[in-house]
């Protein structure tokens, strides 16, 4: 059976990160977009990051341009938006697909284990969030409308 910790992804700078680096940590995976109505959630994600990173929370952002062309920029553009406009310090990975035949393996893995509403396996919009327990088990999927502050109680339940 596939494990979350066997996956990897490339950061905006092209560095490959093995998810085995996150073993024993609570992980929140989010598909993001810089020009989405939910983009201000970067602020709330960063607040969670600052509040809980020393307790083992890791937030992983994956820009995606599959929904309404809301992430059209280059890696440099994405990084600028995240760092300068929202003060993001958590890891942002290369732009990727989160649904369909070219979906990044992390989203194939998470969507398979945590289907959305009515059992739908694909990601439906930007800022869908997946919470992974410290043992690597995907435990909960959150809709784009779910503000990251509402996820805090679920994060705390994993400590």
Helix content: 10-25%
Strand percentage lies at 15-25%
Treating each run of at least 4 consecutive H or I residues as one helix, how many helices? 4
Report the span from N to C terminus.
Answer: 25 Å
The main pleated sheet reads as: 5 strands, mixed
Query: CATH architecture, please?
Result: 3-Layer(aba) Sandwich
- The overall strand count is 7
CATH topology: Glutaredoxin
Supply the helix-strand structural class: alpha/beta
CATH homologous superfamily identity:
Glutaredoxin
Question: Average pLDDT across residues?
Answer: 92
Provide the descriptors you would attach to this structure in a database record.
159 residues; alpha/beta; Glutaredoxin; five-stranded mixed sheet; two-stranded antiparallel sheet; 7 strands; 24% helix
Structure characterization notes:
- The protein is an alpha/beta fold and 159 residues long.
- The protein has a single domain, classed as Glutaredoxin (3-Layer(aba) Sandwich), CATH 3.40.30.
- It contains four helices and seven strands; from the N terminus they run βββαβαβαββα.
- The protein is globular and about 35 Å long.
